[in-house]
Amino acid sequence: MAKRIDVSGLSAFYGTHRAIDDISMTVEPRSVTAFIGPSGCGKSTFLRTLNRMHEVTPGGRVEGKVLLDDENLYASNVDPVTVRRTVGMVFQRPNPFPTMSIYDNVAAGLKLNGVRKKGELDTIVEKSLKGANLWNEVKDRLNRPGSGLSGGQQQRLCIARAIAVEPQVLLMDEPCSALDPISTLAIEDLIGELKSRFTIVIVTHNMQQAARVSDRTAFFNLAGVGQPGKLIEIDETERIFSNPSVQATEDYISGRFG
Amino acid sequence: MTTIETPPAAAPPRKAATVTRAGDRVFAAMSRGSGILLLVVMAAIAVFLTVRAASAISKDHGNFLTTFEWTPSLNPPVFGIAVLAYGTVVSSIIAMLIAVPIALGIALFITHYAPRRLGGPIAYVIDLLAAVPSIIYGLWGALFLVPHLKGLNLWLDNYLSWTVIFHKSDPNSAARSLFTVGILLAIMILPIITNVSREVINQVPKMHQEAALALGATRWEVIRLSVLPFARSGVISASMLGLGRALGETMAVATVLSASPVLSAHILDPVGGTFSQNIVAKFGEADEFGRDALIASGLVLFVITLLVNGAARLIIARRKEYSGANA
């Protein structure tokens, strides 16, 4: 299921402002890649270019190529809706559909894909909730609203919703920043389990988290306010945190700036 | 929410001596006063309507609820609200059936489909519709809508006559019917429903829409999955505001409708009446007793409006925990 992501010469714009500049990188299938860097360095923006969510923002525009295996997501004949069914996303704030039950939240993406049979839905909903380590907590109240769960449970519900459609890639935009340490740990464990099935890219502000969950880490930085963000380096997580090849990375991860 | 346990004290705990400031006191008195004033006004209206209505109804020699005619000047007086209640409800239902889908469509177009350059001007034009006085709508309805709806009436009578509803007893009669009134009311309540719906739809959090988008939802599916469920209770409230106006609209109905005390299932027939149309038509020539009778009909309109609002609140409350409010 998992696919390789190959980005070359990618820049993203908000109107005329260039938010990220000329980024190239490869993300291996069935691995976890973490994006770290200071606020405003464009790591979230870059993440959103990987499932064509960036262009949803008014004025959002992208130049360059993103290959999923061999298919360019930005080719003129590619429908962004199809892209987003292949590349799932989990957001910073847990955002289950408030008007839907837990069951319907997980089934939402399946129904969009035309899965209608009750039996099939039941099976996939259970499998996805189990996959998100949430099944045992919610199996008795699948018809209760998803918004009644705790923050950490809601986020795992969102992960269940995202993996229910069996995406090739799972993008996570600071998935733990609104959660307490215990919920964070639950999500991190989950990421470790999910990487056997999906290609995972995670943006995080928490460097320990990047060190714990990821195989490779990419460091983004920007020269100053209003300057575009750039990819400084991407390497094995272990190397980034022990012996990075760029001085700026070392400064950032050890807490020294500039 | 944290609760601080109070130690079990023998004496009732004394309120901590708080400093009340003059500004606080003035403001609290003002807001309390406004609240009380509202209740007093409502109670005054209710008492006035009930007392006058009761004295009229007690002298009614017909059945007040089922009589078609409105002839309180006869001796003995005979008057009833059957035709008025029917006409009011039917014309309002027609108006809602037409206005709510269109208003929702416009609101969604402005918020989700129209380019920004277009959305603003459209919203402005809709606002202008709300600013037109109802007598102008009435004149436009009588002088433009009535003659121009003749063709549509004939078409409906020709092809949909079998539905009974669209059967027209005299195909050549003018379109001064409840159907025309309904269309006119629909245009009049369109702006309020559109504007309130637009406000509500604009408040649907971006994160819910992005959740749908990220699952691979098309624009319509985003609206269906995240926008409409979230905005549902607000759109119902908006519709109720519109319905309230449709139920009570006076001048436009009085100008267009050819009133007569006939209750007909054929909504294209130029017969019938509504509460407020009847009041404005009869008030001038009514004597003291006639006025009380009209007030009694006003009381019924008041009650119908209350019932409609109550029903709307029930609908909204029924799925409260699923609403976006606790997201």
From TrEMBL, chain A:
Task: Check the record and name the InterPro entries matching this protein.
Answer: AAA+_ATPase (IPR003593), ABC_transporter-like_ATP-bd (IPR003439), ABC_transporter-like_CS (IPR017871), P-loop_NTPase (IPR027417), PstB-like (IPR005670)
Is-annotated flag, keyword Transport?
yes
Q: Which UniProt keywords apply?
A: ATP-binding, Nucleotide-binding, Translocase, Transport
Record keywords: Cell inner membrane included?
Answer: no
Domain of life of the source: Bacteria
Cellular component, GO, one term:
membrane
Supply the Pfam families for this chain: ABC_tran
A molecular function (GO) held by this record is: ATP hydrolysis activity
* This protein's name: Phosphate ABC transporter ATP-binding protein, PhoT family
TrEMBL record, chain B:
The record's CDD domains line, in alphabetical order, gives:
TM_PBP2
Q: Which UniProt keywords apply?
A: Cell membrane, Membrane, Phosphate transport, Transmembrane, Transmembrane helix, Transport
What's the domain of life for this entry? Answer: Bacteria
Q: Where does it localize?
A: Cell membrane
Q: Mind listing the GO molecular function terms for this protein? A: phosphate transmembrane transporter activity
GO BP annotations listed:
phosphate ion transport
Q: Does the keyword Transmembrane helix apply?
A: yes
ABC transmembrane type-1 domain segment(s): 85-312
- What GO CC annotations are associated with the protein? plasma membrane
Does this entry carry the keyword Transmembrane? yes
Q: What Gene3D superfamilies does the record point to?
A: MetI-like
Any Pfam family the entry gives: BPD_transp_1
Indicate the segments annotated as coiled coil, or none if absent: none
Q: How does it sit in the membrane?
A: Multi-pass membrane protein
Enumerate the transmembrane spans: 35-57, 77-110, 122-146, 178-197, 246-268, 293-316
User: What is this protein's function?
Assistant: Part of the binding-protein-dependent transport system for phosphate; probably responsible for the translocation of the substrate across the membrane.
Q: Which NCBIfam families match?
A: phosphate_pstC
Recorded family membership: Belongs to the binding-protein-dependent transport system permease family. CysTW subfamily.
Which PANTHER family does the record associate with it?
PHOSPHATE TRANSPORT SYSTEM PERMEASE PROTEIN PST, PHOSPHATE TRANSPORT SYSTEM PERMEASE PROTEIN PSTC
Q: What is this protein called?
A: Phosphate transport system permease protein
Q: What is the lineage of its organism?
A: Bacteria, Bacillati, Actinomycetota, Actinomycetes, Kitasatosporales
